[in-house]
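Entries read sequence, tokenised fold; example below:

***
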Amino acid sequence: MTDHLIIAPILLPAILAAVALFASSTNIFAARLASGLGTLGLLALAITLMVQASTGPPQGYFLGAWPAPFGIVLVLDRLSALMLLLTALLSTFVLFQAIATGWDRRGRKFHALWLFQLMGLNGAFLTGDAFNLFVFFEVLLIASYGLMVHGGTGPRIKAGLQYIAVNLVGSTLFLFALAVIYALTGTLNMADLAVKLPLLPEGDQALMRVGAVLLMLVFAIKGALVPLHFWLPATYANAPGVVAALFAVMTKVGAYSTLRFGTLVFPADLAVTGTLISDLLLPAGLLTLALGSIGILGAQSLTRMAAYAAIASMGTVFVAMAGFTTQSTTAALFYMVHSTLAGAALFLTVDLVQARGPSRYGATDRPRLPGRLAALFLVTAIATAGLPPLSGFLGKLMVLQAALGPMALVWAVVLLGSFFAIIGMSRAGSAVFWAPKSETIAPLPTSQMLAPAGLLALLVALTVFAGPVQAWMAGTAAALHAPAPYIEAVQLPGKG
């Protein structure tokens, strides 16, 4: 029997987004109710689908009962279920913060855009077709641009225009890549591509490598890999804090897509591409990690520091992923989850500071900040920098243990990057919380601390249960590197 729950994470936010759109013009409570129910509903769905994916083989969902590769297919496996759950957990806490701080009141379409953003994220993680991955990328782009400029003027609008211009270039490259791949294979279904690419004539292989490189460029833009990272610092630094926190999972769409294509469509043993993808990812990941870490050290405001921390975390993810082994993929998945939660907690904490005065270092017109906000920043900085005892330390150990290639270089960049992050965040904390200020203490409602504290609690849980989580992710990595069940779930002619 077809499990219609697989399409629910796409349909639920799409339907409720229309409700929120109409309600937002007259009733903020109704819009909040729609997005709140939608986000909590997605969390319940994600947990249910996670259980299904963990206890059974991959499942295909065929829209309109059209068979693959001719129709639209969604595929639920352990990786897509993990990303759905991560998105749902993150969005639940961040939406609570948006309501607690009143950010959602600064623009009437916030909740509709929020739900469309979740629809795009969930669709990107579930789709089994490269063209529909492009479609959901565009849904993400439109909704994220609206959220990015939410309630803003001046610098935020300028950063938003830069963001959308870069991503439109990425969309154009995506279409070029899809055109090349479809011209050579006659399909864009990812499972079908996995079957047909090994049979590609030798005369077409060079052009297919061009298509593969174009795809990797698109995913590098989404994942903020050097030298295609330049859109991220201004975008994240100028976005509302709650939006930047949600964007912590959006860069992971680029990492997810790279991992999906790198294990299913362009595996390392494929003659057409060989180790091309890993050969490109490792140096780009190391450069991204190095630049992000130096950016943390040289930042002059908390918002820029948090933005560069996001770049450094993506560099670490791609360094781990570049090995394309079961061990390296396990490390990449673990660190991806950690960095998403830690990055979001950092952006929410920085937003609380910025709401009480300038986020730039050395500002003299900021009131004295509450001690509990300083404590929140301290724990968040420890998590982001990868210090023990939190899960970032465990994640970086996994990355170092799984690293391939020039080991001395990888270890040096990862360890020096952590050192720079520690120094940069210590400098930021000293400048913002310890420097002389007015005697006036800025109030901090307890409700506004719950979301970042909740994300940190998830990191504590990730640390305490690191063993079982790592074992589950090792099973996910093994399934990714043995994609026969995924291909079988799509029921290709002659393969089902």
Notes: The chain has a mean pLDDT of 91. The chain has two domains: 1-128, 225-482.
